[in-house]
Amino acid sequence: MRLLTAFTYSLMAANRRSAPFYMTATTQFGLEEVLAEELRQLGAKIEKVGQRAVEFVGDTQLLYEACLWCRTAMRILRPFAGFYARDEKALYREVSRIDWQRFIDPDQTFAITAVVNKSTFEHSLFVAQLTKDAIVDQFRDRLGRRPSVDVKNPDIRLHLHMIENEVTLSLDASGESLHKRGYRQQTNVAPLNEALAAGLLLLAGWDGKKTLIDPMCGSGTLLTEAAMLAQRVAPGLYHQGKFGFENWADFDAALWESVQLDARQARLEEPQAYIAGSDLSREYIELARKNVAAADLEDFIRLGVRDVKEAKAPAKEEPGIVIMNPPYGERIGEETEMDALYKTIGDTLKTGFQGYDAYVFTGNLEAAKRIGLKTSRRIPLYNGPIDCRLLKYELYQGTRKVK
Question: What is the pLDDT of residues 2-61, one digit of tens each?
Fold first, then answer.
């Protein structure tokens, strides 16, 4: 709370691009340090790396750039008020003390997302409802009219975080979650979340130059994110609809136009790396082609139909990394099938990718034992609710000599 006080009531003042303020970027478990490094590269001053969140300081331009460039962020939040709420009356009273016309126009729509931890309040929905009541009551009392609530596509998204009855209220700069890049052509397939896919590549230390192969590429999310990294494509350029900050009272349209122009000009048109993927399913490869085309990256990714047991390193390319997200076998009775699949993966890595670093992202750690190779790293992550690991295998050329 102490960090917020200096900037609590300066948010809607005259827009000074150089005036720094506090922000929070949210991400998935295990990607916090990766996100912190992304923010550092943009010039942010990191204040705290927490669980699924990074607190940092920067100016308006950095806020716009973070929404445009951060590959592993889900949301960028701008805190503007903090207080302690012992009970329902205190929460309503403290929310009522904020001048809400500085943040919401009565003709705009808004929505509140509440996250409640270790508090006397048991339900986040109740906290969101009570906050909403305090806001609309203030508008009704002062102006005789009030902004409407739109939970699906609001003009202003508010985020309330309560831990041990300490409340932080933030404006959500993102709008739609930043992981939704907009290049996916089919939503009934459940591939990797885009932010997680980018996080796996960054955790693997891929530099955007070395050869990258995905022999079980599915609809191509890992490959698409890899090409975006290699060609220096800002993921926010695919964002659907407005960013949340475009509806704020202090939105700087000229600055935003400049930030977008810089991002478009940063794109590299010459291929920077050999990126290729394959899958046994012709249907998945067709879907991957559509996704890659929607991202305007066809010139940078090679795709083919191939069984994983036939996958091998390209003959004329220097060794790089091979990365995959094989099925986890969540249905009952798939254990034998998964054991066989993961044994095949191990055989393919041993025979087809000597000299490479291999990364297997899986939620089936029992089947992963059938890969039959020693891991050099095991990074804990989640794919939705599934407890997963990113397993690294160093595939030595020939026999590794032991001292």
Answer: 334 333 334 433 344 568 999 999 999 999 999 999 999 999 999 999 999 999 999 999
Instruction: Give the span between the Cα atoms of 154 and 176, in whole angstroms.
Output: 10
Does the pLDDT value for residue 319 go beyond 90? yes
Of 377, 372, 307, the C-alpha closest to 339 is 372
Q: Which ranges constitute the DSSP H helices of 100-209?
A: 124-143, 194-203
Q: What is the C-alpha radius of gyration for the chain, rounded to an integer number of angstroms?
A: 24
3-state secondary structure of 353: coil
Place of tokens 């270790």: 118
Burial class (CB in 10 A: 0-12, 13-18, 19+), 329: buried
Q: Indicate if the pLDDT at residue 153 is higher than 90.
A: yes
d(Cα 77, Cα 40) in Å, to the nearest integer? 17
CA-wise closest residue to 320 among 283, 292, 345, 357: 357
96 CB contacts (<8 Å, ≥6 apart)?
134, 137, 138
* Residues forming a β-bridge with 322: 213, 358
Q: pTM of the prediction?
A: 0.91
